[in-house]
């Protein structure tokens, strides 16, 4: 497996410098260029389907074999090429141990077992009022007290970006501590009422002039629609980042999504003068997201954090205020209709996301802890079916998948229930997109470019999950024994609020495998690629304090390319951090042509007292320097 290969090879890599960085912080390629030339591709055309089989009482059905399943795609029979059985007791097997690193040496490798399922609890503070966040936290506290000690769980948070609260662990005490001290309710800036989530009074209702009221109502609707569009986009971006992150781990992943709102679909409001001005189409983004989740074997279990809901129009606090006066009956009717429509749309979104990924939606229930237990238990027992589609025409259309049981298990009296993802979009996994002209960029190209930029933004953000597309090592140690009053060369501190000295300079040395970088052949026989090395310094509250980096473009003749593929990729950067106060280094490795990332995050306090080591000198002739 590639991950194990990287793990075995990395400890042997010496810290060899490719080139000494003496240039400003890296500049990213234009979005159109990222969308056109720098596209992540994969050569596989296999479809992987995880299937959960349960009896009438919701208990897993075990002991099934390959011959007990029948798979069809678009009603055409498919041949199962690979069959695997996964049970809950497999999760007790430990993953490969992380090699012991010398002081100041770090890697982004996460040791997980290749068997069983991984579980992620996602607390969505972007779409959830604070009162509901508190209820979710209370329910999770109840769950972790009784959680299976062998269940591997990570905890993520979502605001305007994705952040990691707790990495994968099966230690109940670590989970209890994370739920108790890291799941802190946060107010969403994109909810009308970030505390309770209840309806807010409309300014238009207090205006007697019909024309003015209509204009104000249109403005309020457009503002609300814009907020929903932002929440939708941030939510889809987060799920894309989750899919990218989890795609580097083997097996099934169960994503438990706690949210107080599911803003994927927006419908026009017929009461507005221009109802279509507030519509937002996100089908393309949703398609891309579900495809990424499917390829990463991520099943989504949306859980409505609001629990069992009643229409707020019937609340005593609203009855005498919002629905009084001559327009009271009409306002009441509209409020009831809006609530019913909103509930239907949000529950449909939950069901749609669950069905597209092979999960299950939970709503109209106050037992959130029980819902988590059901989801994790269900997702721990499954069968993995793999097939090569008979239809090799990759037209981007949706293809339905149907899995059925055969033989004695096909008896309807057994009342067996199968849960799996019901289809996928047939995008060519090995296709290369042509770089579009600026004036003719299609919606697909814009979506790809925006998704690539969102992934880059989250990869470099403090506290975000550490991408493992590229496994690598870094040595981060002081570059000098004494503090300095000036920043290291080519550092780019925050221009608005520059950091103050004295500073301690740190040497950052990279080591990676050359096979993790994409170098494309050129007509002249050379190989071209581009690698970005960068380091970001953050404060504990996530403010960017300082940065340094460089993008190295490789245009290698045949002899240099032969040397490149046999030599570890190394690089050296230096960055300054204030001596006073805590700060964090976010160390990034980015293969630009494939848009693949690796990231390592290190507290400065963990390396500040290490003995300094002289920085490596620049080689006279870097092993990968192009020949002219």
User: Strand order of the main beta sheet, please?
Assistant: 8-7-6-9-10
CATH superfamily of the largest domain: von Willebrand factor, type A domain
Largest sheet: 5 strands, mixed
The third-level CATH topology of the largest domain is Rossmann fold
Identify the CATH class of the largest domain. Alpha Beta
What is the β-strand count? Answer: 22
**What structural category characterises the helix and strand content?**
alpha+beta
Form type: globular
What's the domain count? 2
The separation of the N and C termini measures: 38 Å
- Beta-strand percentage? 15-25%
Number of helices: 11
Descriptors for this entry?
single chain, Rossmann fold, 2 domains, 628 residues, disordered N terminus, five-stranded mixed beta sheet, five-stranded antiparallel beta sheet, disordered C terminus, 24% strand
Give the SSE layout:
Elements: H1 2-9, H2 31-36, E1 47-54, E2 69-73, E3 76-78, E4 80-86, E5 105-107, E6 118-124, H3 130-146, E7 153-158, E8 162-169, H4 172-181, H5 210-246, E9 253-259, H6 283-295, E10 298-304, H7 316-319, H8 328-357, H9 368-379, E11 382-387, E12 398-405, E13 417-419, E14 423-425, H10 443-459, E15 472-478, E16 503-512, E17 520-521, E18 527-538, E19 544-556, H11 558-564, E20 569-578, E21 584-591, E22 596-603
Parallel strand pairs: 6-7, 6-9, 9-10
Antiparallel strand pairs: 1-11, 1-13, 2-3, 2-12, 4-11, 5-15, 7-8, 12-14, 15-16, 16-20, 17-18, 18-19, 18-21, 21-22
Helix pairs in contact: 3-4, 3-9, 5-6, 5-10
């Amino acid at each position: 497996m590639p991950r194990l290969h990287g793990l075995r090879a990395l400890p042997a890599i010496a810290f060899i410098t490719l080139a000494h960085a003496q240039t400003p912080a890296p500049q990213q390629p234009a979005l159109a260029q990222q969308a056109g030339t720098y596209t992540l591709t994969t050569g596989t055309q296999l479809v992987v389907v995880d299937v959960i089989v349960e009896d009438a009482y919701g208990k897993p059905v075990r002991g099934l074999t390959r011959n007990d399943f029948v798979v069809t795609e678009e009603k055409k029979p498919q041949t199962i090429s690979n069959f695997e059985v996964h049970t809950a007791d497999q999760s007790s097997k430990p993953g490969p141990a992380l090699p012991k690193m010398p002081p100041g040496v770090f890697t982004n490798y996460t040791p997980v077992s290749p068997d069983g399922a991984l579980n992620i609890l996602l607390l969505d503070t972007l779409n959830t009022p604070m009162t509901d966040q508190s209820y979710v936290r209370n329910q999770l506290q109840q769950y972790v007290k009784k959680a299976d000690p062998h269940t591997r769980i990570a905890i993520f948070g979502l605001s305007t970006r994705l952040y990691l609260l707790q990495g994968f662990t099966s230690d109940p005490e670590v989970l209890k501590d994370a739920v108790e001290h890291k799941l802190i309710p946060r107010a969403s800036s994109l909810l009308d009422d970030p505390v309770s989530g209840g309806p807010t009074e409309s300014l238009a209702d207090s205006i007697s002039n019909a024309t003015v009221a209509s204009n104000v109502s249109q403005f309020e609707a457009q503002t609300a629609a814009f907020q929903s569009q932002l929440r939708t986009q941030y939510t889809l971006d987060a799920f894309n980042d989750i899919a990218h992150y989890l795609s580097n781990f083997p097996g099934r992943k169960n994503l438990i999504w706690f949210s107080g709102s599911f803003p994927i679909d927006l419908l026009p409001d017929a009461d507005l003068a221009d109802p279509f001005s507030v519509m937002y189409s996100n089908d393309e983004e949703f398609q891309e997201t579900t495809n990424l989740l499917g390829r990463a074997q991520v099943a989504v279990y949306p859980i409505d954090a609001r629990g069992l809901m009643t229409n707020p129009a019937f609340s005593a606090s609203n009855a005498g205020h919002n629905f009084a006066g001559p327009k009271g009956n009409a306002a009441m009717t509209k409020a009831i209709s809006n609530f019913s429509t909103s509930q239907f749309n949000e529950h449909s979104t939950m069901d749609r996301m669950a069905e597209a990924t092979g999960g299950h939606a939970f709503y109209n229930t106050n037992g959130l802890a029980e819902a988590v237990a059901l989801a994790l238990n269900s997702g721990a027992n499954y069968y993995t079916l793999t097939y090569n589609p008979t239809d090799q025409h990759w037209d981007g259309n949706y293809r339905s998948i149907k899995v059925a049981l055969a033989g004695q298990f096909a008896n309807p009296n057994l009342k067996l229930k199968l849960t799996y993802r019901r289809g996928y979009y047939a995008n060519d996994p090995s296709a290369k997109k042509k770089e579009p002209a600026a004036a003719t960029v299609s919606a697909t190209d814009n979506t790809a470019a925006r998704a690539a930029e969102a992934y880059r933004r989250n990869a470099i953000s403090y506290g975000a999950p550490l991408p493992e597309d590229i496994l690598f090592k870094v040595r981060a140690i002081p570059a000098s024994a004494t503090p300095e009053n000036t920043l290291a060369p080519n550092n780019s501190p925050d221009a608005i609020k520059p950091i103050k000295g004295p500073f301690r300079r740190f040497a950052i040395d990279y080591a990676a495998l050359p096979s993790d970088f994409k170098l494309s052949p050129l007509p002249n026989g050379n190989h071209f690629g581009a690698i970005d090395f960068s380091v970001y310094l953050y404060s504990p509250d996530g403010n960017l304090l300082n940065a340094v980096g460089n993008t190295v473009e490789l245009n290698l003749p045949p002899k240099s390319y032969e040397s490149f593929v046999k030599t570890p990729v190394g690089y050296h950067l230096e960055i300054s951090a204030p001596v006073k106060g805590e700060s964090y280094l976010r160390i990034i490795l980015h293969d630009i042509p494939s848009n693949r990332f690796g990231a390592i995050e290190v507290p400065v306090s963990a390396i500040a007292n290490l003995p300094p080591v002289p920085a490596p000198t620049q080689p006279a002739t870097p092993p990968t320097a192009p020949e002219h």
